[in-house]
Amino acid sequence: MLCFASRCLRCGIARETSMSNRAPNRQVNARSVVGFIADRWTRWRHQHELEEFARTYPDEAGRVARDMQMETASLIETAACGSGAVSLLRSRAKHCGIDLDELGRTRADIARDLIRCCAICRSKAQCSRDLRLQPRNQIWTTYCPNSETFSAVSPDRAAGR
Prior knowledge:
Blueprint: H1 2-18, H2 23-56, H3 58-67, H4 72-80, H5 84-95, H6 100-106, H7 108-120, H8 124-133, H9 147-153, H10 155-158
Helix pairs in contact: 1-2, 2-3, 2-4, 4-7, 5-7, 5-8, 6-7
């Protein structure tokens, strides 16, 4: 995890030496690196707190996992990712014409799987960038673990379009 931040920091330093007159970019770059590290630290801390809960109260953790129809390890991994994944999922679902709340009421198993896959996805940064810069571009289907599920439950597909 830190390797990525170190590479970014090295990149920023390299840009500093070659573009010394662009101080605002260095500042934004440093903030991005600090934000990235802070986010990773928070996720790591939450995951370890959840793992501690599962070790201390294995029966309770097992009950929660069964209620969610997940394994305890998957529940911990999903919960440790925070709410950012759900925000991305909601945005992506909206662009696909899918009401995630309605899907949760009618097909809870599918909604739960979408959330789990999105939470553990390693392409959140790319997804966020694509949603922000080019939300209609279908490039996301090449890296999104939920692309086939979105396609299967899409209202366009159900309507035969």
